[in-house]
Amino acid sequence: MLGAIRVAARDRARLAEVIATASRFGLDVLLARIGLDPARRDPDALPFDLPARTRAAMEALGPVWVKLGQILATRADLLPPDWIAELEKLHSEAPRLPFAQLRDQVEAALGEPPESAFARFDPEPLAAASIAQVHRAALHDGTEVVLKIRRPGIRAIMEADLRLLTQIAAMVEAANAEARRYGAMRMIRALGRDILEELDFTNEGRNADRLREDFADEPRVVVPVIHWSHSSETLLVMDFIAGVPPRNAATLEAAGIDPAAIASAGADIVLDMTLINGRFHGDPHPGNLLCLPGNRIALLDLGLIGHVSPRRREEVIAFTQSIANSDPTLLAETLRHWSQTDDIAPERFQAVADRLVARHGGGALRLAAILADIFPVLREERIVLQPDMLLLFKALITIDGVLSGIQPDFDLSAALRRASARIVEARLSPERWTRRAAALALELDRLGDDLPRLIRATTRKLESEAPAVSTTGVEAAIRTGAGWIAGALALSGVAIAVAMRLG
Fold this sequence. Notes:
Largest sheet: 5 strands, antiparallel
Strand content: 5-15%
Radius of gyration: 28 Å
Shape: globular
């Protein structure tokens, strides 16, 4: 059974556990496809269908497998709707540990017992997930805080699972051309990078600080303050925030919060994150958002943050404009930029764009409905999207669902119109042009050092290839022309390099 996959001795016990768990949930077909020999059983005797059994097995196996399932839930360009719907149910809840099992780690992180580090500490957990457990406390100045405590031993388990998944992905890619096309190894490498970042709680703390800075002038956004004097890789201490999750309009109204104002604020916030700041909450579901009095929104659980490059921001704007303005040509070009593979004929992108504009162009911008239509068409045309776009789409679909849940007639078009002025203002800001000017100066300085060498080399090349003519006047003309051409080429190189650097 274990011989089908080559792993270090330290991981063989975990592999046996993975196979046993998968077999227990009737995943014999999936195990056999990747070369592992499961215990034989009749899958018809199990109560759930294959997607449901896969989701249950992932939850039983722990955080790495849950994260993998959550990534796969974003791959509607690869998986059919029944799989996506089931994997979207994945959660990272876990049994709550007695604080006695966490005490040694907490005291090591704080340098003292929590009872002395805090004015008040509650040993009963407030919440628990697969990576961490949360407890309430109060600082000596009276500030109410929560402690996010990493589960003991979780890093070793997750690192072992990542090594196993790397081996499995390599086996699958070696045996399956489609897996190579879809980038199984690339997906696992990205998973490993994200998980290792989440295990270090200082990364989440820095994410919170950056988002708070991004929204320093936006009173509708609240990001909990991180108390760095008490925080470390395994312990994060932040302000406690009390609020109402945005699950439905009635709950918000009962708390004195206006659902329409929250929907408007939520749309403005997500557009600012993605189109202006270039940094967005990677998982904005209702459990990671709280609505506060004054129609404010608190952003919680910031371990997963996505980034949008300036070029991607332009492409997202082009995408929304192409739908709103019924422009299939612009949409086809945008989809081509987002494709992970370069062997797709342009007419296939155009066919996809024509179908999408015919269905959604010119009307209300219902993002979830548009993307729900996009992914089946992409699967049909075998177009695979870039990984960074998938996280962005997942976040946009999630927040669109949240806002539609509290305001059923929610339309992103109005928020985009409001955002357009902020986008223009951000593009014209002195800070942005100062950064661009600095980048231009550095690029010109670097290329200036190389310019004489480039001119000499180009001149020699042109002279060596010039036809042998004995006429002195013609020779002089050739030399003079070569110098001008060399200069033109060098200046073109400067322009191209600068354009690439600033683009």
